[in-house]
Structure prediction request, 182 residues.
Amino acid sequence: MQETTVARSYAEALLDLAVADGEPELYAGLLRQFVGLLETEPEIRAFLETPRIEPDEKKRVISEVLAGKIPDRLLRFLLVVIDKRRQRLLPSIAAEFSDLVDEHSGRVRVEITTAAEPDEALQAELSRRLGQVFEREVLPRYRVNPRIIGGIIVRVGDRILDGSIRHRLQMLRRSLMKAELE
Prediction:
């Protein structure tokens, strides 16, 4: 099974637990913090990922450190991940879980690329219109790439809406070359 598929399955299971507790946002924040700790503290990451330490020992340490500090269901979820030796997938699980929480809460993360930095009025208008298109609250992330010349590129998950001038010029070039060959 592909890594993202496995991570998605774990994230879906965690969403069920988080929704049952009525705390999906809390779970997402705590999981992000835990993954952030793994990224900033290589010793902790090495401890969790080394095959030389048995899962039972890892679970004991994690239980001692986190018991009472995070919801019990989240702790048990982490222990299952460790027991199944999937702890190296925690960053992917956290990313998938964050997306699922957004979806569950009626939000969508959108990456918007423009040739120049958009002003606040344009950002508000883009968010409003994209919110209408996706019928969700838009959480935009803006990127500037002068190579697109003008227009915008919108990326939502694995979908890309390319309205850049560069793309249009490429399409025009292809159609002209195709016309020359005919």
Q: What stands out?
A: The chain has two domains: 3-103, 108-181.
